[in-house]
Amino acid sequence: MSASIDQLTDWVRRFAAAVHEHRDELTRLDSAIGDADHGSNLDRGMTAVVAALDAEPQPSAAALFKKVGMTLVSTVGGASGPLYGTFFLRVATASGEVTELDGPAFAKALRAGLEGVVARGKAEAGDKTMFDALAPAVDALDAALADGDPLGESLRAAATAAASGRDATIPLVARKGRASYLGERSAGHQDPGATSVTLLVVAAAEALA
Ligand code: ADP
Ligand code: MG
Ligand code: MG
């Protein structure tokens, strides 16, 4: 099964809706180990993305994800704006000017997005960041597709892996971002970025089912 441009757009819209719904939770998580703005940051950015897509539907995967990335870079501040922005800009470049992506092409695009996050933020596994949910999700997607599972089922495996990675951030001591300023006191709290990235992967599993 391939993901059509309508399904890819639906992914972005579902992510925006999930961020809006979980805005207070994301902000509460960020108030424990950051500056209490992750929910408001991302909600502002994704609300602007939805407005841009309402004004002008995008004709290709590259155009869609470039619009998302550029909008996030210009509307979301802090760490997560450039990180999510880079993620979507790399997904755009890897996707190309196409109107559908098959499973391997979608997985390749997500892998490129993950590599963009790493290039920008230098996070490694266990640093207690969005990487800790995104990397296992991309690995699980590759593994499921390699097993011959269809894209929707593979994305459900990816969403499960993201949620496990998110939960596993709780005991970690942060080594990147604002939470790292707290040192050992960052342990015992779930990372906000790993939480929002899980919403992103769950939205993909729903939209591309
Ligand atoms: P800020 O910390 O600037 O207020 P946000 O609150 O919007 O930005 O985002 C915080 C999230 O950003 C963290 O929970 C973490 O997941 C993610 N993050 C911070 N620094 C990095 C990094 N270097 N690499 C990957 N993710 C990071
Ligand atoms: Mg913050
Ligand atoms: Mg901030």
TrEMBL record:
Asked if the Swiss-Prot or TrEMBL record annotates the protein with the keyword Kinase, the reply is yes
Originating organism: Pseudonocardia sulfidoxydans NBRC 16205
Q: Which PANTHER family match?
A: TRIOKINASE/FMN CYCLASE (PTHR28629), TRIOKINASE_FMN CYCLASE (PTHR28629:SF4)
DhaL domain location = 6-206
Q: A Pfam family for this UniProt protein?
A: Dak2
**From its record, what is one biological process in GO terms?**
glycerol catabolic process
Q: What one GO molecular function would you report for this record?
A: glycerone kinase activity
Q: Which NCBIfam families match?
A: dha_L_ycgS
Swiss-Prot/TrEMBL keywords: Kinase, Transferase
> Can you say what this protein is called?
Dihydroxyacetone kinase subunit L
Q: What lineage, starting at the top, does this entry show?
A: Bacteria, Bacillati, Actinomycetota, Actinomycetes, Pseudonocardiales
Please provide one cellular component term from the Gene Ontology annotations of this protein. cytosol
